[in-house]
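Protein in question quoted for reference:
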Amino acid sequence: MKKTENIIVGISIGDLNGIGGEIVLKTFEDSRILEFCTPVIFASSKVMGFLKNHFKSEINFNDINNLNQIVFGRVNVLNCWNEPVKIEFGKEDFKIGAYAIKSLQEATKALKNNAIDVLVTAPINKHNIQSKEFNFPGHTDYLAQELEGESLMFMVTERLRVGLLTDHVPVKDIAIKISAELIEKKINTIYESLLKDFKINRPKIAVLGINPHTGDNGVIGNEDDEIMRPTLAKIKDSGKLIYGPYAADSFFGSNNYKNFDAIIASYHDQGLIPFKTLSFGQGVNFTAGLNKIRTSPDHGTAFEIAGKSVADENSFKEAVFTALQIFKNRFDYEQLTSNSLKQTEKKL
């Protein structure tokens, strides 16, 4: 990482029958954003031309066939395919799903090769992306395989950050998946992310229980007493400010969440229902713990409103700005720790 200017933002186009194309166009119609970054949309000039005409956008694209042709300060479109694509807004289509994956794979390759600096993903349909070649529940699991580090779904706004112990896991398997090792790994990932990605020097983290009322002393399950509490006590003894487990049903309604830099939920809906209730349309899905930066909006393809020019781009725009800020924060952290190491070496 060598720069904090002219940051290149790669964008995977997502499901073309959903609202992804519309929110991408609306985000970059405000040319002021090009003062902060240079976007590269992984799709095709034909597709983006169709979307531009359909949504009556005034964006002028810079069409490129390889990443060496990127023009800074312009909205670049990398041709990942040349054939025409039939777009039918609101329709679930496996052919469209294949293009979403083609875009994601090409963008991820560019990210790994440092041809782009950060990745922002438009929404995909988790059903029509499935194939023999691509068998992942979503972006996070695919990127965890392709990139280095321990991935974690981290939903963030300026004032609220919610991470998950388990993400796309069936409810019947949640308790089986949660172990002391998993809890330690996820807490450490969030702790490091708060330090490096959000510039929080002494993070204070709350953990929500696994069972209702954190088990009520074993009346409603033993996992909180046998796994969660001893693990949190061990982590706290290491010096980290870790608190819990808290009963999830009252934690957000009582505003207790405001006392912490991050909250870790045991499973998907336990964390995402309150997060989206409090911040829907402003939240960002950040894949923490990886060596590269990826963000996305906090919503899906929204087939029911696709193509109608009514989609709200704010969450996608926030995803772009969050990726830029995290990139800069990581740069500052690396500079700071590098300088500290050099000073220590000189003293030795």
Summary: Residues 314-347 form the longest helix (34 residues). The CA atoms of residues 172 and 266 lie 13 Å apart.
